[in-house]
Design a protein that fits this description.
Elements (H helix, E strand, L loop, with lengths): L1 H20 L20 H10 L51 H21 L27 H4 L2 H34 L7 H27 L6 H23 L9 H8 L3 H34 L4 H22 L1
Helix pairs in contact: 5-6, 5-9, 6-7, 7-9, 7-10, 8-9
Length: 334
């Protein structure tokens, strides 16, 4: 037991001596002094001072030590390359029909339009592009072609002449309607008792002129056209053509109030004003000429109809068949 106590006393003595030898700065639990940072080393401070970059100040004026950030270089201009058509985007291609800057682009647009027309023809073998009235393509509606005419290409030899003369007759008929309207205005302005029916003369020009083309001329053209219509189309032509012959005959007579300047009206006006009467007689003679030529042309068309194997009995049968087919279709729809 004595030896153990001696040993403990020695250990305690040694510890006390060591702790007495420690300085205050050797305490590991004490706060480090302010100048103990490794960055306060003079060598480190000197190196940092030499490598310090000037600080950029956006609010400072020109001059000074601040420097602006470097700008990115401008992109190089794109140089157009001769790329093929298939490599050009659709939105980059010029639309057809617009103004082009070069002759090559105009030619390309023209080829594109022709290709579109060819595609339409291939999709519909019976496609017949409108070419009459012969208005330019730049015109807008209603000044656009509405019908297709190809007398040499679509009409057989036996029906070419009668159809062509029918077209010339329609042109003369339209002109006489216009001249009849002018003469009606002249007659009413010089002789107030001349009851010419001025309003009816305007209606005849703007309604009967286009209706004549649609009703009888188009029927004649389709009836004679190669692989054309049936006897029923011929029947419709003769019916509408006969109605016009009656109308032209009435206009040639010129009864008061019918809207036509004919023989009657011209005879009344010439007694009061010889100059105006002579002008009205020109219109009356035009109506007489139209009536005579239309009777001749109808007889010519009838001979062509019979020589081509047509008959009114066949037209009547076709009309009955169409009526029966329409009745059956209506019954099924109900």
């Amino acid at each position: 037991r004595r030896c153990r106590s001696t040993t403990h006393s020695e250990i305690q003595f040694d510890l006390c001596c060591n702790m007495a030898d420690w300085a205050e700065d050797d305490n590991p639990f004490a706060a480090p002094p302010a100048d103990s940072s490794p960055f306060n080393d003079p060598a480190v401070a000197q190196s940092q001072g030499s490598a310090t970059m000037p600080e950029y100040d956006p609010f400072s004026g020109a001059g000074g030590t601040s420097s602006a950030p470097a700008q990115a270089p401008a992109p190089a201009p794109v140089v157009a390359s001769d790329a093929p058509d298939w490599a050009t985007p659709a939105e980059a291609k010029p639309a057809p029909g617009k103004n082009m800057s070069t002759a090559d682009e105009q030619k390309r647009a023209k080829n594109y339009e022709e290709a579109e027309k060819g595609t339409a023809v291939r999709k519909d073998p019976g496609h017949r592009p409108a070419n009459w009235p012969p208005f330019p393509q730049k015109c807008v509606w209603p000044f656009k072609p509405c019908f297709h005419h190809d007398f040499r290409g679509e009409l057989p030899a036996y029906g070419y002449a009668v159809t062509k003369h029918g077209y010339y007759y329609w042109c003369a008929y339209f002109f006489v309607l216009f001249w009849n309207m002018i003469c009606s205005c002249v007659a009413m302005g010089t002789y107030s008792n001349a009851d010419t029916g001025l309003g009816l003369s305007f209606a005849y020009l703007f309604f009967f002129g286009p209706l004549a083309y649609l009703c009888w001329f188009q029927s004649l053209y389709k009836a004679i056209m190669k692989d054309g219509a049936s006897n029923l189309t011929w029947g419709w032509f003769f019916f509408s053509y006969l109605f016009q012959l009656i109308f032209v005959s009435l206009m040639a007579l010129g009864y008061p109030g019918l809207g036509g300047v004919g023989v009657w009206t011209a005879s009344v006006v010439v007694q009061h004003n010889s100059g105006v009467g002579i002008v009205l007689w020109t219109c009356a003679l035009c109506w007489i000429f139209l009536a005579i030529y239309q009777a001749y042309h109808m007889k010519w068309a009838l001979s062509v109809f019979k020589s081509s194997g047509g008959s009114f009995e066949g037209a009547q049968k076709e009309a009955q068949q169409m009526a029966v087919a329409g009745a059956v279709a209506g019954a099924v729809a109900k």
